[in-house]
Amino acid sequence: MKFWDFKNNVSTGFQIVIFSLLICGALGCKNELNVIEEGSTTPVVYGVLSLQDNNHYIRLERSFASQSIAASALAKDSAALYYPNATVQIQNLTTGVIYNMVRVDATAEGFPRKTGPFAISPNLVYKISNDELNITKATPYKLIIQTGENKTLTSTTTTLINPRLISPPISNKNLAFDAVYKDYNIDWEDDANALLHDINIKITYEEFNAANPNQSEIKSLLWKLGVSHTKSTINFTPNLFFQYLGNNMEKRQDVVRQMKDIEFQIYSGGREMLAKQDLVDANFGITGSQDLPLYSNITGALGIFTAKNYLSVSGYSIKPGAGLDSLFNGIHTKDLNFRQ
């Protein structure tokens, strides 16, 4: 899911929200749920703060409703996509200080926009360095936007998430994996403001050319283990681990593979993301609808301003014995050519 990943959200998922609105405008949306009137614009905002980021970014764009101009044309028009005279600020609600953000091209910042329905260049966002903002744990922040078109947008406050303890399956970093159906638990200590968690296992391995072992390449897989917002633990079994490898790695005899590292990762999102997810879950559970509801904590706009956190522990390996034998010769992985 990774809703807190700026790079992914500004170039993929964020576009979906805007594009759905553009399509709605182009088709007229002739029903009682039409939220955008002909000729009007609706601001769309995305921003995530993290104690671990050196720079913080806010994306501000606008959606249009038009029956005379195709949605695809509007999406490609950067002049229509951005507010030319907008100002974006973040307020520390503990001190009252308001900080001004500067408009930059996200591509130059290392976040290129993926090719798709939207204008790729310019790729404008608003930026402030953490040296200036100096965000601190458990501090509430507020987003303030002047669109330059006599419209002020404000967010409900978001509170920074403090990194907390993560407890992997065992402390000595040797995973026995001898009982393939045994549950291995990953536990973490919740922060009061972290209410939605993505749990991943990153599996790093080295791939050697069987004909020339001096040629090798480090590769990795990211197993998205699950999402939790009701508890601070999640589990997996060695059988599921090996099954994941078998389903996601190419079966090759021209290479020899060696396991290098197993890393446990937790991405945590603020209460705003939980509210959004609960709204989606409730709508889907009640109606079974694929038309998911729009969630926003931005007054006068669509979008979200929230906080994130990231924790990881690495250096884990499979202990020699039955677990490694399952990796080398087990039903799911025997054709992957893993060796000691």
Low-pLDDT sequence parts: 1-38, 275-293
Strand content: 35-45%
Largest sheet: 9 strands, mixed
**Average predicted local confidence, pLDDT:** 79
How many β-strand stretches? 18
- Tell me the CATH architecture of the largest domain: Sandwich
CATH class designation of the largest domain:
Mainly Beta
The radius of gyration over CA amounts to 23 Å
- Fraction of residues in helix: 10-25%
Output the CATH topology of the largest domain: Immunoglobulin-like
- Total count of domains: 2
Number of helices: 7
Distance between the termini: 33 Å
* Silhouette: elongated
Task: Give the class from helix and strand content and strand pairing.
Answer: alpha+beta
Structural account:
By secondary structure, the protein is an alpha+beta fold. It folds into 2 domains: 6-160, Sandwich (Immunoglobulin-like); 166-268 and 311-336. Helix content is 21%, strand content 37%. It is built from 7 helices and 18 strands. Strands 1, 2, 5, 6, 11, 13, 14, 16 and 18 form a 9-stranded mixed sheet that branches. Strands 3, 4, 7, 8, 9 and 17 form a 6-stranded antiparallel sheet that branches. A 3-stranded antiparallel sheet has the order 10-12-15. Mean pLDDT is 79; it is low at 1-38 and 275-293.
How do the helices and strands line up, and which of them pair or pack?
Layout: H1 6-27, E1 41-50, E2 55-64, H2 71-76, H3 78-81, E3 87-92, E4 98-100, E5 102-105, E6 124-129, H4 130-133, E7 140-146, E8 152-155, E9 158-159, E10 166-167, E11 174-175, E12 184-188, E13 196-209, E14 216-228, E15 233-236, H5 238-248, E16 255-269, H6 271-287, E17 298-299, E18 302-318, H7 322-329
